[in-house]
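Replying to the earlier thread about multi-chain prediction with a worked example.

Input:
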Amino acid sequence: MYRTFLPALALTVTILLPSFVSRSFAEEVLTEQRFHQLHKQLQPAADELWRTIPWRTSLLAAQQRAIAEKKPIFIWAMDGHPLGCT
Amino acid sequence: MLRTQFIAVAIDQAYQRRQQDAEGEFYRKIAGQGPRNNFQSTTQGFYIASADGTLLLYNNNRDPEKLQRLMQQRLQDFKAPSAATPISPGTLDARYNPSPPKGGCVVRVQARVLGGYPPTTDRWKKIFQTSLSRDNLWISAAEQQALAKGQVTQSLQHRIARFHLVDNTRGEPSMWKEKEIRQIKITLDGTTLRGTVHLETDDGKRGYVAQLMGKIEMGSGKVVRFDMVADGSFWGHGPYSGNAPTGRFPFAVGFRLADGTDAADTVPPQGSRGWVQGYIR
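Result:
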């Protein structure tokens, strides 16, 4: 009896499990209200201090400005772009 | 101090230490005077240099007070070199100077862990735990034309999933392999975009399941609004993004069309690093 039952059970699980998993992901529906709230939450504040710095992304452009303004160059060099990535 | 007394430049040194052009040569001239002068490995850190390429400071300490003190010291000693001349960029090393696709567009991508961290009083942990990441999504001309017809191409869906639904809030993220896209469906109905995605590694140690929603508007065949959110649960971390919350944690990614007003809008996507043809096909 178990032998005949097991393939049916396996088939039922195979069919139903993905839909169960999908449904569990879809249960918390992303509403318009949450979309707008989250989208706002995922924007950087305009007054964040590092954003007020006139960063250049070209070292040679910085070199030219450094000559013109008689200033030293400050280089923030990372693995991954400091203004992107992280 | 950075705004007024220095010329500030931010770079991914993985490009400059390798690129065979004037920009790369100038960087290697400066970095080669510091302790990290093996260009086969990372040279990351903070550098202060004069316009003739003389290194004035190398520091890789993240303590802002210490760095500020060192910057002030170098400023006091600084004399602008009289012999420095502007360096012409010349011919650019194409591999390390990728441009956004012609006729396409750039979308800002920002992600945040929404919860799951244990309480902490540690200053640095707090910074990582509340950080908002930043990257750019490149959309090709063909993909933009498809959006105008109400279609989200498979290439765009997979690029979003593989390179932009990543937890890059604590360091360089692990991107998803093609086979790790277990399920993805993004559709556009009028101006409303909806979708679901399931990403997971073979060993199940890292994954993300999320719903997507967005508002896409077109004008004269071009995207004029691209607002989108991925909202779901993430688990696991990569080798350079450790200290994630334990188990599943809420994680969201936001997308907004770049308008070119931010210096970061010009930065190539992290997923295109050294392999732009693999990123945008």
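The helical segments of chain A are 2-26, 32-41, 59-69.

Feel free to reuse this layout for your own posts.
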